[in-house]
Write a structure and sequence with these properties.
six-stranded parallel sheet; four-stranded mixed sheet; alpha/beta; binds S-adenosylmethionine; Alpha/beta knot; 60s Ribosomal Protein L30, Chain: A; elongated; 2 domains
Length: 253
């Protein structure tokens, strides 16, 4: 898919079907986790490679081969808003089939995170970044939010390629014991989460849906002082994944 002669032409050909990686860090992460990147541009190749020398020597040679320098105005015309690193790239979205295979793989070595009808694109991006950091098997959303929406991808800092990200119906969720998080549940501190757990979190507005509750095996609560109603969705996922790792779960190395 590479078009080394004319990266701008390649960009226009692929922009509608590929995922925008906005900035150096998103490109660095995507490359580290094996994304296919048919085109990458920068308005300042020397600065981009200096960043790679400093922050990502492991992928420096790959970035050197990928990055094409274009004039600042051309770069700015390709992205919705210029990034301070003046780097942008397009990556091929992993197929749904490949993600479903990863999610269904047994035995699973790390939990799947389910966001049940999330509303906030920033929360979804933050959760994908958390899942990548903890080596979770994947992040599944139910409902209408697209977990590959450009704003979610921006929030995920290129880490959509480090974990399987898909939208599914509640009836299509991966197998495994389903632990749903809700302030009314049993204290999570007394529970060891298995590696094949499916960890579900409710929507920012209304919590867990009836359909998700019906599929739940265990309802768990994060410790919270009386009079506080609930935590933010992404911070709830962070505490739960931390609990999994701190009680014997092994973030993938
Ligand atoms: C912002 S909260 C939802 C608040 C919503 N108004 C409700 O009725 O539940 C989003 C999600 O974070 C998780 N969450 C937040 N605080 C929690 C707590 N103390 N214990 C367990 N889960 C919590 C739950 O999964 C919840 O559905």
């Amino acid at each position: 898919m590479n078009d080394p002669v004319d990266p701008v032409r390649a960009w226009h050909r692929l922009a509608g079907i590929c995922v925008l990686l906005d900035g150096f860090h998103a490109l660095k992460h995507a490359v580290r986790f094996g994304a296919e990147v048919p085109v990458a541009v920068t308005a300042d190749r020397r600065a981009a490679l200096a960043l790679a020398d400093e922050l990502a020597p492991d992928v420096r040679d790959t970035l050197d081969a990928l990055l094409s320098e274009v004039p600042q105005g051309t770069y700015a015309s390709l992205v919705p808003r210029p990034h301070p690193t003046a780097v942008a790239a397009l990556a091929v979205r992993p197929s749904r089939e490949a993600n479903l295979r990863t999610l269904a793989h047994a035995p699973r070595g790390a939990p799947v995170v389910v966001l049940d009808q999330p509303r906030n694109l920033g929360n979804a991006g933050a959760v994908i970044r958390l899942a990548a950091g903890f080596g979770a098997t994947g992040v599944v959303t139910t409902g209408t939010l697209d977990p590959w929406h450009p704003t979610v991808v921006r929030g995920g800092a290129g880490l959509h390629f480090a974990t399987a990200v898909e939208r599914l119906g509640v009836d299509e969720l991966p197998r495994g014991p389903l632990f749903a998080l809700d302030p009314e549940g049993e204290d999570i501190r007394g529970v060891k989460l298995p590696d094949d757990a499916v960890l579900a979190f409710g929507s920012e507005r209304s919590g867990l849906s009836a359909a998700l509750r019906a599929r739940t095996d265990h309802l768990l609560a994060l410790p919270m002082r009386p009079q506080v109603s609930s935590y933010n969705l992404a911070t709830s996922v962070a505490m739960t994944l931390y609990h999994w790792s701190a009680t014997g779960g092994a973030p993938a190395s």
